[in-house]
Amino acid sequence: MKLYKEDFAGFSQELGSWFVGFGFAIVSDHGVEKSIIDHALDQAKAFFALPLETKARYTVKGGSGQRGYTGLGVETAKDHTFADLKEFWHHGRTLPDGHRYNAMMPANVAMPEIPGFDASQQAMFEAFDALGKQILRAIAMFLALPIDYFDEKVALGNSVLRTLHYPALEAGVTPGAIRAGAHGDINVITLLLGAQEPGLQLLDKEGNWQSVTAPEGCVVINIGDMLARLTNDLLPSTIHRVINPMPERAGIARYSAPFFLHFSPDVLIKTLPMNGPPNYKPIRAQDFLEERLREIKLA
Ligand SMILES: O=C(O)CCC(=O)C(=O)O
Ligand SMILES: [Fe+2]
């Protein structure tokens, strides 16, 4: 993102053309401090190493997995039979008590078991929230919209930082189950932080699976369904998955951290006049989210 400051129009053009072609882009020099990322990932690893009965205490019953811990065997990609081979922690936006969005954005779950965990999640959330807004300014420019087009729409976005643990698979798995079944993301854009282990693949326009490998320290960004709806699929929400490791790496766990950037709950996602006749009907962001959470078995 050196180019972001030096040649904003050039940056936005390049970013946009990657999105149009693949729905994905890889960004270096994003400016989020390495110490914030490393600390949050280390704290998360320590959490996932806790006994299952301890972790399970941090699951919010009836909370649709939107905050705290979601164990193995819950999230199931849309139209898939087997649940994904993953567990995760969700940390969302902190709002003041009595805020009109409290029901849709519940308080984060405190996790005192690992000292400093909560603060590390909050720091990472804030860093990615800010980075996401910068990326959206470049996307607005690419779409010939006012540069601040997205600012207000995401200011109180129902965004969530997901820290993922895909456990080692040496014990074997149910045939057909994979780390993350093929899916499109629900949200506006996703900022994905570096898994050291391979496995992420995207489905390209020719119908071939392509590995997504980002140099260390880079952020992988992809378009979610909400932005695909808004742009009438000019910026496509590309199907992606995380495949199981080769036998020689089956004993190695995989960690990653996507930040799902969402619109504010009340935003009406109404397809803009671009890319041909509209493919979608208008829908409120929160209604769309709730519908999709049911489809992936979180709600
Ligand atoms: O772990 C990854 O690399 C990708 C995760 C993902 O696609 C998701 O959680 O939506
Ligand atoms: Fe995803």
TrEMBL record:
User: EC number(s)?
Assistant: 1.13.12.19, 1.14.20.7
Record lineage: Bacteria, Pseudomonadati, Pseudomonadota, Alphaproteobacteria, Caulobacterales
Identify the keywords attached in UniProt to this record, alphabetized.
Answer: Ethylene biosynthesis, Iron, Metal-binding, Oxidoreductase
Pathway, per record = Alkene biosynthesis; ethylene biosynthesis via 2-oxoglutarate
- PROSITE patterns with a match to the protein in the record: FE2OG_OXY
Catalytic activities:
L-arginine + 2-oxoglutarate + O2 = guanidine + L-glutamate 5-semialdehyde + succinate + CO2; 2-oxoglutarate + O2 + 2 H(+) = ethene + 3 CO2 + H2O
Q: Which cofactor does it need?
A: Fe(2+)
Q: Does the keyword Iron apply?
A: yes
Organism name: Candidatus Phycosocius spiralis
Question: What name is this protein filed under?
Answer: 2-oxoglutarate-dependent ethylene/succinate-forming enzyme
Q: Which family does it belong to?
A: Belongs to the iron/ascorbate-dependent oxidoreductase family.
